[in-house]
Amino acid sequence: MSTDTEMDGVGDADARVDVSVVLAAFNAEAFIERAFRSALDQAGVAVELIVVDDASTDGTVAKVRSLAGGDERVRVVALPANGGPSVARNAAVEVARGEWIAVLDADDAMLPGRLQRLVEVGRSQGADIVADVFLPFHAATGETGEPTLRLGPAEVLDLPRYVQGARPFNAEADFGLLKPLFRRAFLARAGLRYPTEVRHGEDFELVFRCLQAGARFVLHREPFYLYTMRSSGFSRTRIDYGGLIERSMQLRDSLDPTGDALARELMLERCRALERLEFQHRYKQIRSADGRARSLAFALTQKEGWRAIMRKLAGGLRERSVA
User: Which CATH number describes the domain made up of 6-238?
Assistant: First the structure.
């Protein structure tokens, strides 16, 4: 870390820590309390909470220190300049002491017992990465939705299976949205950290790199993580679909054409799905601002627009054949 980085709350350096919860925060004063308390309320495991303030311009740091109230389990790292979620999380990883590192977004929360259960699964199954099912949380209403992935027995995800699940328009939610626990010793041994040049899709890329390096990833299909929907207005992320697609192609190029042929093909499918999602997003934006004619004109100039038209025509033909 930079020598200008501030850190307080070092706690007992000799104390055993099962899980280091990494909480990156930028202008999160209004909503960080729920995430903060959900981490410290985890029972059955020894937890440290590392809050990294990514050069917020509001009262995030003061809020966190007030919530901590001298709790030695809380450590605050204040970055001198905004670097994005990857930079913030890496700063926490550098000072973490836990056997496991758990990622928690500032607008999300963990249900009681989550960390104890995932640590048990990770240890018993010899995992380097372990994740669970997330539940959508609607901040405006305070309601929790249905699980976004199917529930059932734990599943070991190899690289092709992870890539297959890490894209939009699947039957289940995008695996890239999972918030895993990483075994700290594995990250150290593999020399892996979050990609600092990436501000969206960094979770997917780190897991991808870990699997390339031989990590064992166990998906525990019970719901313990509350994922706040973007409609809440809390998220500070601005999605760069073009950047996601370009980065996915770079990751694909890092795969061996012979040994990783399946993963390479699945990465192409991920890119096509991201193109479709980008098209839908832009189409809705244009239609909302300029109306139906303008959005249709836009669609006719886009490759994904023609694909959408062909999908709709194919669906109509199928309906007619059934009738």
Answer: 3.90.550.10
